Amino acid sequence: MKPKSLLWPLAAIALGSAGSLVLARSDNAAATAAAMNSAPQVASEADRAVARLLKVRLPRTRVSKIDCGVVDGICEVTAGSQLFYTDRTARYLVIGRVYDMETRQDLTAVRLLAVNPDLLVGGAAGRREHEEAQAASPASPQPVAATAAPRTMSLGRLPAAGGIVWGHGNGPAVTVFSDFRCGYCRALSGVLEAMNVRVIERPISVLGSRDLANQVFCARDRARAVKAAYAGLAISDTGKCDTSPLDANERFAREEGLAGTPVIVRSDGAVLEGFRPREVLEAWLKGARS
C-alpha cells in the first residue's frame, strides 16, 4: 500500500464506541486489493519494532503482518482476517477505518479486500465488536475483527418525509441510508434499480454531501435526481424547499451510530451494513418476518 501524506488528526478516523460500517468511494477496491496481494513487501525496521512491542502487549494475538507505511504515524496490523491500527510505539490501539479525504478512498476497505477477496465490503468496529473489545482482559486486550455485526433497527421515530421513494411501488420496501458521494452506495443503487423493490432512500452526509442531498430532496423529480446525483450529473430541476426531514435522518444516524454508508434496513428492521450483490439481497429480503 502506498504511503499517504496525511496528518494524524485528519487521516485516522477511529470509529470506536459509536460503531461504523463500510464507507467510501472505493470503486476500484477489488482491483487495488488484487494488485496489493501480488506485490511482495519487505518489512521495515519500524514494522519489526512494532511487531516486537505487540508480542508483549497483545501476547494472545497472532499478528500476520504489520505495515507502518500506510499513513504517517500509523501502523496497519493484520491478524488473520482481522485488521486494526496502532501508533509506532504500540501504545494506542485503533479499531476503525482510515479514510483518505484527498483521494476519497477507504483504505481499510481496500485492505480488507486484500485479506479476504470474497469480502465485498466489511463493516468496521461495529457495536458488537466494541462491546467484545471492552470485555477483553484489561491486562491483555484483544483487538477484534473489522467485520459487520448483525443488528436490527427500528425506524419508527423517523418522519416519512425524510425518505426519497423510488423503484417499484409494488415490491417489498427497503430503506437505505446513503451518501450520494459514496461509490458503494452508487453500486447498490444500480443493483436495487434492477430488482423488484420499493426503495426508501434516506441521505446522510458522511462524505460532505449535504448540499447535494438538499438538491435531490428539493428536485421536482426526486427519482430522476437520485440517478443524476450518483452519476455525477447536474440536477437542473431543483430549487429551495424545507430540508428539515433530512436533518432528522442525520440525527437518527448519529443516535444509531451510523458513521458510514450504505446501511440497508429491511421492513422487519433487519440491517445489512454495506454493499451486497443482487443474489444476496434477494435471499435476504425473502427472510423478512411479517
Using brief descriptors, characterize the structure shown.
290 residues, alpha+beta, Glutaredoxin, 6-stranded mixed β-sheet, 4-stranded antiparallel β-sheet, 10 helices, elongated
Helix and strand succession? Answer: HEHHEEEEEEHHEEEHEHHHEEH
CATH architecture grouping of the largest domain: 3-Layer(aba) Sandwich
Binned, the helix content reads: 25-40%
Structural class: alpha+beta
**How can the largest sheet be summarized?**
6 strands, mixed
CATH class of the largest domain: Alpha Beta
Question: Overview of this structure, please?
Answer:
With 290 residues, the protein is of the alpha+beta class. It has 2 domains: 8-135, no CATH class; 151-286, Glutaredoxin (3-Layer(aba) Sandwich). The protein is built from 10 helices and 13 strands. The protein has helices spanning 8-11, 29-38, 45-57, 107-115, 127-135, 183-193, 210-217, 222-231, 244-256, 278-286, and strands spanning 12-13, 65-71, 74-79, 82-86, 93-94, 97-100, 105-106, 151-152, 164-167, 173-178, 198-203, 263-265, 270-273. A 6-stranded mixed beta sheet has the order 8-13-12-10-11-9, with helices on both faces. A 4-stranded antiparallel beta sheet has the order 2-3-4-5, sandwiched between helices. Strands 1-6-7 form a 3-stranded antiparallel beta sheet. α2 (29-38) crosses α4 and α7 (210-217) packs antiparallel against α8 (222-231). The longest helix is centred in the first third of the chain and has 13 residues, at 45-57. The chain is elongated. The N and C termini lie far apart (46 Å). The model is unreliable at 1-40 and 118-149 (pLDDT under 50).
